[in-house]
Amino acid sequence: MQVKKLTISAYTENVVGLLNQITLVFTRRHLNIDSLNVSETERKGISRFTIALTTTEAMANKVVQQLNKIIEVIHAEYHEDSNLIYNQIALYKVSISDAKKVQSLDSIVRQNGATILSQTEEYTVIQNIGHRRILEAFLTILQDYGETEFVRSGRVALTTDGIRLNELLPAEEEAHLS
Amino acid sequence: MEFKSNTTMEKESLTSTAKDVYHQPTAQKFKEVETISGAEAIVRCLIEEGVDVLFGYPGGAIMPVYDELYKYQDQLNHILVRHEQGAGHAAQGYARITRRPGVSIVTSGPGATNLVTPLGDALMDSTPIVCISGQVPAHLLGTDAFQETDVIGVTTAVTKWNYQITKASEIPEVFAKAFYIANSGRPGPVMIDITKNAQFEELEWKGYQPNPVVRSYKPKPAVKMNRIEEAAELLNSAERPFMLVGHGVLISKAQEEVMSLMEKAGIPAACTLQGLSAVPKEHPMYMGMLGMHGNYGPNLLSSECDVLLAVGMRFDDRVTGVASTYATQAKVIHIEIDPSEIDKIIPTTVAVNADAKEALQALLPLIKTNTHDDWVARFKACEIEEYEKVIGPDLFANTEGMKMPEVIKCLSDLTKGEAIIVPDVGQHQMAAGRYYEYTSTDGWVTSGGLGTMGFAMPAALGCAFAAPDRDVVAIIGDGCFQMCIQELGTISQTKLPVKMIILNNSFLGMVRQWQELFFDRRYSFTELQNPDFITIAKGYGIDGKTVKERANLEQALQDMLDHEGPYVLELIVEKEHNVFPMVPAGCGASEMRLE
Questions:
Q1: The complex's ipTM?
Q2: A99 and A75 in a common domain
Q3: Do B339 and A24 touch (CB under 8 A)?
Q4: Is A176 a domain residue?
């Protein structure tokens, strides 16, 4: 079966130790995660895991089943890129002091839709948002200007067809319970 | 045919275990808001959950709870084991017979890590246990304090759920959740780690609410009728249907439904290792045991059935052999409560994600009365072939030494198939599975998934607490006996009539068999120099006897069964007897070898 880029999206309770439980599902199957992002959702106390990995659909399906088995996982599912709206954020710290070069850097930043977050005599910190390939291509450009420190976030994604939190845990029911 | 229904048995065992040690909690006493210690709250939670016996071992970090156990001795029967692993397995044995969570309680650090094997075992074999470990005070967490282990970190991979309590106020809610999770859906082990400060702290006891709502956990999926209809259609049009009966049938108490389906639809059925005793052995549509050392027909004909109905089982690799070749010709109906088991190993045609009993109850009215005489005859033919080549020679041996199968058959006859058999792991386990002729359900407790040597002795003790009215016989190899041998002390102290048969071949028999068959008889570290087991038993105050001759077997077994209190019967068996038939590693189930 064909290996492809897949993104797992999971709604979970926000509890201590859950990250460990989730990563164990991958570790046990010797699967490497491409990127991982955890954040709170629109509902207080509920987190959303976005896990990008490269694997077969059959494996992604098994992983999702195992994730759903974790008590504190409310719902997990996987998606192909075509059903996602996604982005990553990257920060670049370029060591550069030559004034001429700095000027040219500024224009490259503008052309690429990036933003300068901080600038000193020794370095410039730039932020860019986009898909992984774009962020990496931008790194190559910046490296021509000087030594570049680079960090990229995990993928954040919203699905076009995925199940919504309100379908899983209707807000009215929640209010009734609490 | 005497085949006790589960409900009657449960009632019997409940009343008899409770009679001396357990009073129902006086709800009134607990209703008012009182201020009590966390330790006392823990004990009250256990009582509220109907726990009547718990297996444990004290130590520094759990001492406040032990002080409360001292106080509540008239309501909670604490059994002091000799090693925490024994506490876990005893809780498992108890849970497997009562179908209620078994409980063990240990201290921090080594106490908790010694529970890892029973937790892993209970996870693989869907056994509800709740394990409680003490922990260093919250302010010392992460400081490498004395007897500190990251219990949550260590047990996450081997539990259905775990939780660390650091505040006394969390206790009632977490315990209610723990018991609920352990025994709902697909049962499993739960670990609760409690810091010592939470045991000392006080809380307001406002009563106890069992079975809380856990919004992220939906243990019992509703039966989808369209799936049931599809399944019925497949079964009604099948020419060569075959049913696989797993542990889930015992857990959901669906034995009657399974038998009704076998009879109505004329479906031959076989049990997995953990499904044994779900169907009595003499049932005309029962074809035997699945698995690497199961019966010939159920393995061979897996590649010929046209509809395969799997109920409450998970297609373990010991059942399928090479999974990619297993029953590929068949349409597969999989009734299973755990959705992650569906399509995990064998792709299904119709997936029924539901409780086995509920699904079968919905299915039965849609099933047409049918027979498949020619197909059933194929199984019978396999049975004859297996009898000629394996069973006959196994049971009527002319060898000098006894063989394991004839011991099991003799035990089966003497106990009329009604005993609870608790085999350990290895050749003796396979002999017990193959040759004990069940007439009563819930008669089989063994470590199947994890294959834990040393399981049987403590598990049998748990079974004895769960069913004091039944014979409990542990069948143990000479290797296994020495893995939890210290629990002889626990058994002796409880005086419960746990009967232990050592099938002694002075070898780690199953490994030796593989060495003989697949490693050119290079017996690498499998021969044992054994102690005098009976002297050891007697040292613990347990009576016993060694028997070498076939002629004395029956009398020795009868004496063991008649003996009041625990007993160790050591039987010297053939050193190099092999368990057949066998599906060799790397082969499909239908490639089973009879010799």
A1: 0.90
A2: no
A3: no
A4: no
